[in-house]
Design goal:
Blueprint: H1 5-14, H2 16-32, H3 41-63, E1 69-73, E2 80-82, E3 87-91, H4 99-111, H5 120-129, H6 134-141
Parallel strand pairs: 1-3
Antiparallel strand pairs: 2-3
Helix pairs in contact: 3-4
Length: 147
């Protein structure tokens, strides 16, 4: 918006290598995640209800971070969220991730109970809870897509 077609095309040409890398990452992400028909949503729901509340309780106790409520939903746009009242919602699709990434997502949401944003303080807290591996774990998590 607000730029000429010529300027937009020049920008695209300048960023062609970046666009190709992004397309490659997206393709790798799709390949790493099972196709939708292969996912049994009800089996995931049962597994999530058995795993995620205990995982949340354990990590909250270990970190001293407190949440008010946990909800498990079939959200396809986010792995998790935290409300202003510290109610955490987790996607049942977390069950498609390796355990260490499930922990990472839960810790991410627990950090939002202290910092309701993605500020530098939020990232410092999360990084301290994952042993200085926040960027590494974020990169790994981006290899997965919710289906």
């Amino acid at each position: 918006m607000g730029v000429s077609e010529q300027r937009a095309l020049c920008f695209l040409e300048e960023k062609q290598a970046w666009v190709e890398r992004a397309r490659q990452r997206l393709m790798e992400r799709r390949m790493a995640t099972p196709a939708p028909k292969e996912v049994d949503v009800e089996a995931l729901r049962r597994a999530a209800k058995a795993d995620l509340p205990l995982r949340m309780e354990r990590l909250a106790a270990q970190t001293g971070l407190r949440y008010t409520k946990l909800t498990i939903r079939a959200t396809r746009t986010k792995w998790g969220s935290c409300s202003a009242r510290n109610a955490i919602s987790l996607s049942l699709y977390l069950m498609t991730l390796p355990e260490h990434l499930r922990d990472f997502v839960v810790l991410h949401e627990l950090c939002h109970t202290v910092h309701h944003n993605h500020s530098e303080r939020f990232h410092r807290l999360l990084d301290s809870l994952v042993g200085g591996r926040e960027k590494e774990l974020n990169r790994e998590l981006r290899c997965y897509a919710i289906r």
